[in-house]
Amino acid sequence: MTKRKIAQRIPFTPSKTQAQLLEQCFGDRRFAYNQQVEAFNTYDKETNPNPEYPNVTDMKNANGWLSDSPIPSNALSNAIMDFRKARSAYFRKADYEKHRPRFASRNDNIQSFRNTMPIRRMDGNRYPLSKKLGSVRIRKRDRLRYPIESLSSWTVKRENRTYYLVLLFDVDVRPKPPAEGCIGIDLGVKDFLTLSTGEKINYPTRLRDLEEKVKREQRRLSHRKKGASNYIRQKQKLAKAYAKLRHYRDDFQHQLSHRLIEENQFIGMETLMVRNMTRKARERLDADGKPMRNGQARKRAMNRSILRDGWSGLVDKLSYKAEWYGRALIRVDRFYPSSKLCHECGYKYQRLRLSEREWVCGHCGTLHDRDVNAALNIRDEALRLNGSGE
């Protein structure tokens, strides 16, 4: 049994007074963060390698209104901690300009502040945030999944005009009883997942409908004059459509990963470098700026499909759930030729093309479904790696 941090997100509707107080807290959190960014912008490796960053006391002394703010006492400190993480990430990256900490804006779709000293009690069906901010009503369908005594922090977030209370719990996660299943998983473009059992899993058509909705809203935004009131309203509609698409994809991946973890004790997967795959496609397409040929158009469509399907999100969910619940998740090397090897005899079909969805083994004559054969090979290779202790 291991302690893990698990979050629960609860939507709520604040009163008008409470909404004004929350908006003030969002602004104060942005102010504290932007003070750090402003100091960071004076950084220079030669002349100013160690800028002086203001702490909470300095900011309150220089801005008296900050002392009277309804924001919880340690939320400003958490804003400074968030900046330090962004600054550390900036210096870890090779291409600095792409990851430079930027100013937080009131026009950002997501606004939030975090309190790491929560009240650990409930007032009936309401959770008290603080004396100044009041409480949040929790509906029956959103009842707390974990004991309130294990609460470690809460975050109030506004995303596209919807308010959320995000509760973070320290939970004892127990391993699940052993399962009998043992599968290999092949991730693909034509089919999202192909299992070694022969099952092929794709996103529901609802996801495609949401993607079309995003495209329509994006086209409408491109016809608006930037900065006009219609532009701002359309931008909010687009952000709402994006959020709905993202939430739907995440929900599907959570349900799918939960099912795979419940049914299988051993899972084998190929190691994918999504960033490299999409970057190479972009490099091919951006060269010379000439009109795309058919092959280039296909590569762009594949690049879009890879990013749209969210392979990395599913792999991350499977990884932490396997660790939590005592399942074995083994990654096969990305250079392992899973699609080209015959699962029956081991013959390698060197000239296999991407367009060939089925192929016949030249040695034993077995007809292979490309993706199912790859999943079987991934499962067997993962079992071999697990047995050899690699």
Automatic annotation (TrEMBL):
Single GO MF descriptor: metal ion binding
Residues of the Cas12f1-like TNB domain: 311-378
Lineage: superkingdom: Bacteria
The Transposase putative helix-turn-helix domain, residue ranges: 1-35
Keywords: DNA recombination, DNA-binding, Metal-binding, Transposition, Zinc
InterPro entries attached to this UniProt entry: Cas12f1-like_TNB, RNA-guided_DNA_endo/Transpos, Transposase, Transposase_put_HTH
Family: In the N-terminal section; belongs to the transposase 2 family. In the C-terminal section; belongs to the transposase 35 family.
Protein name: Transposase, IS605 OrfB family
Species annotation: Bifidobacterium magnum
Source organism phylogeny: Bacteria, Bacillati, Actinomycetota, Actinomycetes, Bifidobacteriales
